[in-house]
Design a protein that fits this description.
single chain; alpha+beta; Endonuclease III, domain 1; Nucleoside Triphosphate Pyrophosphohydrolase; 2 domains; three-stranded mixed β-sheet; three-stranded antiparallel β-sheet; DNA repair; DNA damage
């Protein structure tokens, strides 16, 4: 029978460790809910190093939520460019407008969760960091640390698992120190109790960790495989005509909703497709739910080609003013130097 670790030992050990080894991050020096919310949205699916630079740029350009709400969606999407998961940027922009309409940043858990794109974790993080709410912010680090320390093999991505881990995280929440507790578990999971190659020999919880004692560290947490990754093939065409190029804004429900992209095969006539030059074949781009394999083409027609009505023609040099996905950046980086070198297919 597993020995149940002493709850106060788990929490107090983590807080002691955090006081010495916690990461120094710029949004931890403020209780401004806007700055904290912005960091949480940016850091979803983003590494700290990359996310920090984006957070600093956002805060410099839009230091207050009113500034962000007054921007255009294109401006926000352009600033977000390179972070991926662009629904986060759209939700961020819409939520900023919600907050301005409310007249203040919501300060209860239920009201914070009403913001566009804010779920249980993000609401708990904002609530505890900005307003001192007594709530555990359960993210992937929490699942991993709790599963290993308490020896829990209930799958984390099942209704039972979600409920179990949320209750356990809340049970060990120290009174009046929710922010430090949440940040301690995040940092502990990110630097010591990592998904791969955890630093068990340096872990202050090693002696009472069930997974360590039972040699199950690499088996926990348990997550059921539910995601099916699909492969999608694309043919993308950078068109150069009279110093201009053609782009259009992707519609709702698309993988690049709200971003600007170049024409694909279905937008061109067979004659135009045949006239294009292949720049690179099978460029791989990995998204959460699919893998994209793209063929890059350059087309320089003598006459302006007919395209669907939602396409616009812009000066080539102005494309940097439009929010485009990373895959388009790769295509442009290949196509535009040909113009500077005077090469014409």
């Amino acid at each position: 029978m597993n020995m149940k670790p002493i709850p106060s030992l788990f929490t107090s050990t983590l807080l002691t460790w955090y006081s010495k080894h916690g990461r120094h991050l710029p949004w931890r020096t403020t209780q401004d809910p806007y700055a904290i919310w912005l960091s949480e949205v940016i850091l979803q699916q983003t590494r700290i190093a990359q996310g920090t630079s984006y957070w600093l740029r956002f805060m410099e350009k839009w230091p207050h939520v009113e500034d962000l709400a007054a921007a255009t969606e294109d401006e926000v999407m352009r600033m977000w460019q390179g972070l991926g998961y662009y629904s986060r940027a759209r939700n961020l922009y819409q939520a900023a407008q919600q907050i301005v309409t409310l007249g203040q940043f919501p300060n209860t858990l239920s009201d914070i969760k009403r913001l566009k794109g804010v779920g249980d974790y993000t609401a708990a993080a904002i609530g505890s960091f900005a307003f001192g709410l007594q709530v555990a912010a359960v993210d992937g680090n929490f699942y991993r640390v709790l599963a290993r320390y308490f020896g829990i093999d209930t799958p984390m991505n099942t209704p039972e698992g979600v409920k179990l881990f949320a209750a356990l995280a809340q049970e060990h929440l120290p009174e009046g120190a929710a922010a430090d507790y949440n940040q301690a578990v995040m940092d502990f999971g990110a630097t010591l109790c990592t998904p791969k190659a955890p630093q068990c020999t340096r872990c202050p919880l090693a002696e009472t960790c069930v997974a360590r004692r039972e040699n199950k560290v690499d088996q926990l947490p348990v997550k059921l495989k539910t995601l099916k990754v699909l492969t999608r093939n694309l043919s993308l065409y950078y068109i150069r005509w009279n110093g201009k190029t053609a782009i259009h804004k992707r519609g709702s429900g698309d993988i690049w909703q709200g971003l600007w992209t170049v024409p694909e095969s279905e937008h061109l006539t067979p004659r135009l497709r045949k006239a294009a030059v292949l720049l690179q074949k099978g460029v791989k781009h990995v998204l959460t739910h699919r893998i994209l394999l793209a063929d890059f083409h350059l087309l320089s027609p003598k006459e302006k080609p007919a395209l669907p009505t939602d396409f616009i023609w812009i000066d080539e040099k102005d494309i940097e003013n439009y929010g485009i996905p990373r895959l388009m950046e790769k295509l442009i980086s290949l196509a535009q130097p040909l113009q500077r070198e005077g090469i014409r297919p």
